[in-house]
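Trying the structure run again after the queue cleared.
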Amino acid sequence: MIELTRSVVLERYTTANRYTHDADVIYGDTDSVMVNFGLKDINAVMALGRQAAKDVTAYFRPPIKLEFEKVYYPYLLINKKRYAGLYWTRPETYDRMDAKGIEVHDAAFIPLTSFFFSLEVKTAYRSFPIISPFVAPDGAQR
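Done. Tokens:
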């Protein structure tokens, strides 16, 4: 399922198909996929995330259905299941700061501190990639 999702996204969302950037699947596991569409416009990324969820879902039999959930911007991926960023569910403003798998005593705390220290400046300049996760809802077969 993960490989099919990755291949659909990587084949469809490309400059060859008239998108402004080639999409990059930066993370995927049994219940989520995180995609960098290469855009700096949160509205556009949300629209692409919704469309990608529909496109990929078309390859699976019910009850499997991927859903667009959120956008992370800016986003820091340290490694599998360890990331931080601002969590957006609507384009007007972010909902909250979100961090997973990072503890203050981890070695990851140093880059995380730097990341959030410069967050206000980085957000103003829109220098980080916008990441669009879409997920299988709880209870769906994976």
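The chain has four helices and seven strands. Worth checking whether this holds up in the mutant runs.
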